Amino acid sequence: MESANSCPAEGLLKMLSGKWKPQIFRIAVEGPVRFNGLLRQLEGASKQSVAVALKELEENGLLEKVVIKLKPLHIEYNLSQKGQSLIPVFRQLESLQ
Amino acid sequence: MESANSCPAEGLLKMLSGKWKPQIFRIAVEGPVRFNGLLRQLEGASKQSVAVALKELEENGLLEKVVIKLKPLHIEYNLSQKGQSLIPVFRQLESLQ
DNA sequence: TAAGGTAGTCATGTTTTTCTGACTAATTGT
DNA sequence: ACAATTAGTCAGAAAAACATGACTACCTTA
């Protein structure tokens, strides 16, 4: 049982909480990300963690999964509309420190 | 060993991550908070968790501890300057949903 | 003197999150 | 045929977060 979310900001904070999601989000702001690419960039991250993080970011509508049917079959994750709407918040957080 | 924080927003996200910190922060925006008061308001939260959350929020400079030397000795936690600077970010997060 | 409220701490146990390493499956290059 | 790259999944172990209940210490009221 989950109690009703009485704090609206809490949901979005939760979507970005965890060991790797903030970094994945930041990288995704720069451009499309891919599974193995992230695995290389995020030192110490396990396949498992990256897979779960990507899945949840997608489920929460922050990233969009795109299958590219070329050559060795690529899968990209792009920032969704909702994801892009979070960029200003991120910028604001960065400016505070 | 903690790797250098390459994502500036990440630090602040971490300061607000956890089961109770977002709610505590939100309540603190309304006014001073106290230990037992929070324990009553946050259904399901343990003394332990509230104590740790308050300590970390204070260590991270988002809350300020104030000892009120009256009657049965009260301890208040107020939003610091830094904590107040986070309010607009919270508002923005709320507006996004 | 005992009860109740203040604000916690501490040891222990459970639950959640994360990591490790093996494995799958399709495609490409040697 | 074999190795490597793509993108994962899965079982199990370790680590981190959280809950439970007992306990401390100070102060006030009955």
Alpha carbon gap, first and last residue of chain A = 36 Å
Q: Indicate the low-confidence ranges of chain A by residue numbers.
A: none
**How would you write the strand order of the largest sheet of chain A?**
1-2
Query: So, the CATH homologous superfamily of chain A?
Result: Winged helix-like DNA-binding domain superfamily/Winged helix DNA-binding domain
Q: Supply the number of structural domains of chain A.
A: 1
Oligomer: homodimer
List the total number of helices of chain A.
Answer: 6
Quickly describe the structure.
The structure is a homodimer. By secondary structure, the first copy, chain A, is α+β, with helices and mostly antiparallel strands.
Overall description:
The structure is a homodimer of 97-residue chains. Chain A contains six helices and two strands, in the order H-H-H-H-E-E-H-H. In chain A, 55% of the residues lie in helices and 12% in strands. Chain A is globular. In chain A, helix 3 (35-41) crosses helix 4. Chain A has a single domain, classed as Arc Repressor Mutant, subunit A. The mean pLDDT of chain A is 91. Chain A has a two-stranded antiparallel ribbon with strand order 1-2. The N and C termini of chain A lie far apart (36 Å). With 97 residues, chain A is of the alpha+beta class. The longest helix of chain A is centred in the middle third of the chain and has 13 residues, at 47-59. The first copy, chain A, has helices at 8-15, 21-30, 35-41, 47-59, 81-85, 87-96; strands at 63-68, 74-79. The structure holds a DNA duplex (30 and 30 nucleotides).
